[in-house]
Amino acid sequence: MRVQTYPVRLPAAAVLLGLMLIALRARAQDPARLHINGLEKLAAKASEVVDVNLDASMLKLASRFMGEDEKDDAELKQMLQNLKGIYVKSFEFDKEGEYTEADVEAIRSQLRSPAWTKVVSVRSKKEGENAEVYLLGSESNVQGLAIIAADPKELTVVNVVGPIDLNKLSELGGHMGVPKLKVEKKTANPEGKSGDKKP
Amino acid sequence: MKRLEDELKTALRRVEPPAGFAERVLAQARQQADSKPGFAARLRGLFRPRAVRWAAAFASACVLILAAARYRQYQQVKIQGELASAQARQALRIASAKLNAVLKDAARPPHRNLEN
User: Fold this and answer.
1) Which of A62, A85, A94, A117 could cysteine-pair with B88, CB 3.0–4.6 Å?
2) B82 contacts in A (CB within 8 Å)?
3) For residue A142, how far is the Cα from the chain centroid?
C-alpha cells in the first residue's frame, strides 16, 4: 500500500497562525468598554430611558454631521474624533426600588480590574445617592471613563471609550445647557476613600 | 432626293452653344458637389436605427436610476449621521452633567456630607 505524504509548509502555517492571531486581537474588546447591556431589562420599569450606543464608526459619522461654524460644535467634533465609543444607559423611575444593588454591582465588578481606578466616590446615606467616577489610564492620559450615578429613582451609567480630556468634558456642561460648575479638580471623599485603586 | 439631302444638311448642321453655356454647366456641377451631408447630418444618420435609439434611452434611464439610488443612499446616511450626532450630544451632556454633579458633591465640606 502506498502512503502519500505531504510536506508541511511551515512558512504558510506560520502566516496563517499570524493572521488568526491578528484577527483574534482585533476581535478582542477594548478594556475601557464595559458590558452594560444587562441593564436593558430595567427599561420596562423606567418612566424615562436614555440609551446611547455609539461605536467608533458611528462617532465618526456623527462628527461629520456636526457644523464647524459654532465653537461648541467644533469642540465637540474634535472630542468625538478621538473617541472609540460612548455608551450611556440612564433610567428614571416613578418609584423607588425598581433596580437592585445587584444591577449596579454587575457594572461595578467590571471596574474592579487593576486597569481601572476609582477617582471619586460620593455617598449620601440620607438621600440614598451614590456616585462613582472611574478612569482607565493615567490622569494625564485618560483612555476610558466610567460614571455610575445611582439615586433611589434614577440609575445612570456612562462609559466613554478612548482618550478623553476630563476638563473639556466638564466644560461641555456650561456650553450645552447645563450650568457650568467651578469645581476644583481635586478628589474629596467624606469616607476617606479618595483615589481608591479598587472600590 | 436632292431636296431631302438639303433638309438633312440644314437639320444636322453644326450649331455653336449659346454664350456662357460651359460656365453654367460647371457651376451646376460644383453646386451638386457642395450639397453633400455635413458632419452633424452624418452623426444624426448614425442614430437613425431604432435599436441604437432604444439603447441610448436605456442608458439614460440607467444613469437616472443610479443617480436616484445614490441620492437616496446619501439621504439615509445623512439621517443616520444626524441621529448619531444628536445621540452623541445627549451622551456627552449626560456625562458632563453627571461628572460635574459628582465633582460638586465631592468638593463639599466633609461635615456637610456626613450630615446627609
Assistant:
1) A62
2) 65
3) 12
Q: Is residue B13 part of a domain?
A: no
The answer to whether residue B10 is domain-embedded is no
Separation between Cα atoms, residue A197 and residue A115, nearest integer Å: 9
The cell numbers describing A73, all together, are 460644535
Residue B7 resides in a domain = no
How confident is the model over A9-59, as pLDDT tens digits?
A: 677 777 888 777 776 665 567 889 999 999 999 999 999 999 999 999 999
pLDDT for A150-185, tens place per residue?
A: 999 999 999 999 999 888 888 886 555 444 444 444
Q: Does B84 contact chain A (CB < 8 Å)? A: yes
Best of B105, B108, B111, B112 to disrupt the A interface (most A CBs within 10 Å) is B105
When divided into structural domains, chain B yields a total of: 1
Q: Are B113 and A190 in contact (CB under 8 A)?
A: yes
- Its ipTM equals 0.72
